[in-house]
Amino acid sequence: MSVFTNAFGALQKVGKSLMLPVSVLPVAGLLLGIGAANLPWIPDILSQVMAASGGAIFGNLALIFAIGVALGFTENDGVSALAATVGYAVLLATMGVVASAMGVETKSIMGLQSIETGVFGGILIGGVAAAVFNRFFRIQLPAYLGFFAGKRAVPIITAFAAIFLGIILVFIWPPIGGVIDAFSHWAAEQSPAMAFSIYGIVERSLIPFGLHHVWNVPFFFEAGSCTNLAGEARTGVLTCYLEADQASRAAATNHFGQLAGGYMFKMYGLPAAAIAIWHCAKPEHRAKVGGIMISAALTSFLTGITEPIEFSFLFVAPVLYALHAILAGTAFFVTNSLGMVHGTSFSHGFIDFIVLSGNSQNFLLFPVIGAIYAVVYYSVFRFVITKFDLKTPGREDESDSLLASASDGDEDEMARDLVVAFGGAGNIVSLDACITRLRIGVNDPAKVDQPRLKAMGAAGVVQVGNGMQAIFGTQSENLKTAMDIFLKKGGGTEPVAPVAATPAPTTDTAPVELTADVEAAVSVCVATFGGVDNIKKVTRCATSRIRLLLREPVDVDPDTIDLPLSQATMKVQENLYHILVGEYAEAYEAAINKLREQ
Fold first, then answer.
1. Which three-class secondary structure state does DSSP give residue 119?
2. Start and end of every PTS EIIC type-1 domain (predicted)?
3. How far apart are CA 158 and CA 409, in angstroms?
4. To pair with 531 at 20 to 30 A between CA atoms, which of 8, 73, 410, 443?
């Protein structure tokens, strides 16, 4: 099990590291797509500049991946980026010299004759640079070499490591390259419908674990090859759709549009599934669920970011997610079989669809097939939800399981609550984020309060080994930054309250002492929120705040009310409030529950 969990943790880091280079692809795609479209209202020189700028990014993907991987494994330390750049240049030069001596074919890469290893070469040297940094960034040297001690030694050591890696790759890369070429030919030319159907099913299946970025690399950047307008060789259907010259497009199967299937379920299928979830909600919850689902549907349609929808049903209805993964695979099969050609630079949203449509073929088929997928998704989701009474949002027995916003309250307080929920500063080993999720490495997963994270707005929490992922949507990066700042200030070192199996009060624990001040304050609080009969549930969602779920909404302005012993009141939903009471949280909870039991 330890081998598996360690491997999963390493793959998570690789996946997260790949997000940085992937994040530059949208702007590269936009520049290349708009520039190559030769729009009449854009001057020719500006179109050429935009196309060349986008092409420059795609032409240096290996270096960009090297830097991204190095940064991802070294907590974003800039020295590792420099080391990766130096290492990549040395790697190219070494492979070129040794390959020429052995009669192995070389090509010009960044002005150096070398072996073409593509983005995999960049990922390898990025990993080497990161390993060197983590091992030697505090190295001590004799006084006369003191200038080169510490981080200054890292690029130097990486250069020597790159020499050894380059020599090794000259011997082992030709057979590896042959396997990659065979895969490329099979996926892009021989059986694209089958290959990309498998890609679609596996890619969706890896989403919950955050490993889909690793799976994307061979299909995006290795399957298929072409020549661009400048006569330079390029690999990967994502790159070739944007850069290939007309001769390459004419000779290619499906004209490098093998990724077109993503538009079917991201622009049409999943938004329809979100509407089905909305329509299946209980009448009393339908308005709230509608707001959440419509927002998630628009996000998926416009940008192709699907996690807000997917994680709304992944944990409560895994069967729906399995059906979704299969439908996603069929989308790639259908588009490849019908000759539907389109590409992407990011995530198959409407923005990509319009901007990158210049090289599309069978363009009018997309809304037609998309509408069919919308009907299929809606019908399947609605039937399965109602047939098996799945507890999708709005169908739960407790309405407090609806997604809450993670943006309420003070940013520092939110960061503190997140640190506490992950078991305190002492339990957090690593801290990172991708587009939609916090990625936290912890010493002891048992100390992580998953119900608390969900109460704070997480759509779901995934645990494998000591790796935790909390899905907070597109707020995740800002939340990670806030947590990082909080931890660097020394926060989160106070003792963490133990995680309870359930938030309800029990009788087998020592009673909390209720002072007259607390009881008086609670009486005012209860009266303010409609009396004890209107309080459906009260829990501590952090060591310093009370989460109050009401049966019926009340006319209360959180900005003006002044509750005794409280520091602030935050309205999370129409009938859900957070009351910040600091050290009185436990007593506050006990006093309210005491009143409810009377």
1. helix
2. 5-397
3. 45
4. 410
DSSP 501: S
3-state SS assignment for residue 343: coil
Half-sphere exposure of 508 (CA within 13 A, CB side): 1
Predicted local distance difference test score (pLDDT) of residue 587 = 86
Return the domain boundaries, the chain: 2-255, 258-399, 404-488, 516-597
pLDDT of residue 9: 67
User: Cβ distance 187 to 219 under 8 Å?
Assistant: yes
The Cα–Cα gap between 407 and 415 comes to 11
CATH of 516-597, one of 3.30.1360.60, 3.40.109.10, 3.30.465.10, 3.10.290.10: 3.30.1360.60
H or E element in which residue 234 lies: strand 233-235
The answer for residues whose C-beta is within 8 angstroms of residue 127's C-beta and 6 or more apart is 69, 70, 73
Q: What is the dihedral of CA 466, 472, 473, 474, to 10 degrees?
A: -100
Q: Phi/psi zone of residue 161: left (φ > 0), alpha (ψ -120 to 50 degrees), beta?
A: alpha
Which tokens is 141 given?
């040297």
Please identify every residue annotated as catalytic.
434
| CA-atom Rg of the chain in angstroms | 27
Q: Do domains 404-488 and 516-597 have the same CATH topology?
A: yes
Q: Residue 310 and residue 473: Cα distance in Å, rounded?
A: 11
Residue ranges of the chain with per-residue pLDDT less than 50: 1, 399-409, 495-509
Q: Cβ distance 352 to 249 under 8 Å?
A: no
Reduce the DSSP state of residue 413 to 3 states and report it. Answer: helix
CATH number attached to the domain at 404-488: 3.30.1360.60
Strand ordering across the sheet containing 576-580: 535-542, 545-550, 576-580, 568-573
Q: Can you state the angle between helices 585-597 and 516-528, rounded to 10 degrees?
A: 70
Give dist(CA 295, CA 292) in Å, integer. Answer: 5
pLDDT value for 569 = 83
Q: What is the pLDDT of residue 121?
A: 95
Residues whose CB is less than 8 angstroms from the CB of residue 259 and which lie 6 or more positions away in sequence, other chains included: 196, 219, 220, 237, 238, 241, 332, 342, 343, 344, 348
Question: How far from chain centre, in Å, is Cα 173?
Answer: 31
57-85 burial, b if ≥16 CB within 10 A, otherwise e?
bbbbbbbbbbbbbbbbbbeebebbbbbbb
- The count of C-alpha atoms lying within 13 angstroms of the C-alpha of 483, restricted to the half-sphere facing its C-beta, is 24
